[in-house]
Amino acid sequence: MTVISSTKTPEALTLTIAAEFAADVERVWQIWEDPRQLERWWGPPTWPATFERYEFQPGGKADYFMTGPDGSKARGWWKFTAVAAPSSLELDDGFADANGAPVTDMGSAHMAVAIENAGGSTRMSVTTTFESAEQMDKMLAMGMEEGMGLAMGQIDAILAEQQVA
After folding, report:
1. DSSP assigned state of 163
2. The dihedral sign for the CA sequence 5, 35, 130, 28
3. Nearest Cα to 5, choosing from 24, 26, 22, 19?
4. Who's near 142: CB < 8 A, 6+ residues apart?
């Protein structure tokens, strides 16, 4: 099932990507709650993620890097602003330098995730709100929309695996 829509709304400075999965809401929540599962899909297939810190609670932080095919590393950070299991989470998101410090010239974005029952499947919507039209244009030009679609395309295989309680 995976990605069902991708909507850019320039006047609201948002990009929303929605996907549907053949799993219940609680199971889809686990792909955010468990950093080892998150690592398996956050980032396109050729840029897998490694989370070095993962404090999944309001005010908590996450530090991660994605490793490219040539071995280069792209670092990022998150600050969780809301976590309401199993239906929603929000976080501020930005780039980091080689030491994990925020890169301020790229700004940050706000991401809101909604997970809801969709009558036999679960719909997950990820809405990113940008600081400016310039930032939105730059992120889209860097391939954010395509990358998120490819990343979310990896979730079905993770959800299909048997989970050990």
Report:
1. P
2. positive
3. 19
4. none
Nearest-angstrom CA–CA distance, 115 and 160: 17
Can you give the length of the chain in residues?
165
CA distances from 51 to 37, 55, 97 (A): 10, 10, 15
Domain residue limits, the chain: 2-160
For residue 157, the one-letter residue type is: A
CA dihedral over 9, 12, 13, 19, signed as positive or negative: negative
Q: Any idea what the Cα angle at residue 72 is, between residues 43 and 29, rounded to 5°? A: 20
152: phi then psi, degrees, rounded to nearest 5: -65, -25
pLDDT mean by block of 10 residues, the chain; 165 residues: 90 97 95 96 93 97 96 96 98 94 92 96 97 96 93 93 61
Q: How far is CA 107 from the centre of its chain?
A: 17
Query: Residue 90 is which amino acid?
Result: E
| Gap between the Cα atoms of 57 and 79, Å rounded | 9
Question: 3-state DSSP: the chain helix, strand, coil percent, rounded to 5?
Answer: 25, 40, 30
Homologous superfamily of domain range 2-160: START domain (3.30.530.20)
pLDDT of residue 2: 84
